[in-house]
Amino acid sequence: MAAGETKMALIFFAVAAFCAAQAIDIAQLRLLAAKKNLTSVLVFGDSSVDPGNNNRLDTTNKGNFPPYGKDFLNGRPSGRFTNGKLATDFIADALGYKKIIRGFLDPHLNKLDMLHGVSFASAGSGYDDLTANLSRVISLSKQVEYLKHYKIHLRQLLGVNKAEEQIRNAVFVISMGTNDFLLNYYVESNRSQQFSAAQYEDYLVSSMSTAVKEMRSVGARRVVVVGVPPFGCMPLVLTLRDETKCDEALNKLALSFTTKLKQKLTTLKGSLGIKTSFLDIYTIIGTIIQNPKSYGFTEASKGCCGTGTYEFGTTCRGMATCSDRTKYVFWDAVHFTENLYKILADEAIKLISVDLLS
């Protein structure tokens, strides 16, 4: 067996072991969260964690129409770019806060929502503010600005001291990066003319670092950063490149970026005096795509919406879907299904228990 094959085999068995592990004891998790005074989940990112903030924006980057939300509450499109819940919804539910996390711009956001977690995420965003500007969505720096507005609301609800405590005991989740590469660096010309791919990775990692430092100044003490998936395996990428196998060059870039993010987060943990956790979705999703049947899936190369080869966002509007969504890794040609998000959430919950609550 070649060295590369041996490495992939080891990765496969490692991830398979985690998936086969005993189910998370939700009751014990909630007791631990209460003991450690966990208050809420605050989310920053792109379409992987946007529950519908883009519904309120003048952008075409939306998912608030069928068939999105087909398996969400009462089959209602919420703006989530999937058929049901996002990983952050599952995380909040497991911790005992809310069944779902609402967007900060959601007009139905109420006091209870505010106290137990909100998402500032915006589909189409990235670590590079230019990425968000291209799609007229909420940049990371603007999301952090919204966090400061959120803290003002908390002060009005709880008073200054309680608001500080609320932020200090929250779990901050950051999930983005794919758009920076696929929609910005490789489609537009500005960044690719300014930076080599490696230099752009460093630029994005620096932007992540700046954002975490800003969050720390607002009060963050527990931070989860999510890596990027193997985006060379996305159905849309396979279609555009007329390939049946994952684009190894893009996946190599995604893995390199994942490694740099993780290293920087470790540095920030020490320099800022915060608790951190890194969710390596590159390895998890890559292993599932290579061995879908081992995880209950039968289709990992195309999405459930339409032909599954190119439709996402507006091109998915009103399209027919596959008969069994639970068997698909991808919901559309870019985004994942609720079942895949549940797997990611379970792993995130394990990491939160060990890294942030120990």
UniProtKB/TrEMBL annotation:
It comes from the Eukaryota. Keywords: Signal. InterPro entries: GDSL, GDSL_lipolytic_enzyme, SGNH_hydro_sf, SGNH_plant_lipase-like. Residues 1-23 form the signal peptide. SUPFAM superfamilies: SGNH hydrolase (SSF52266). Transmembrane segments: none annotated. It holds the Pfam family Lipase_GDSL. Belongs to the 'GDSL' lipolytic enzyme family. This is GDSL esterase/lipase.
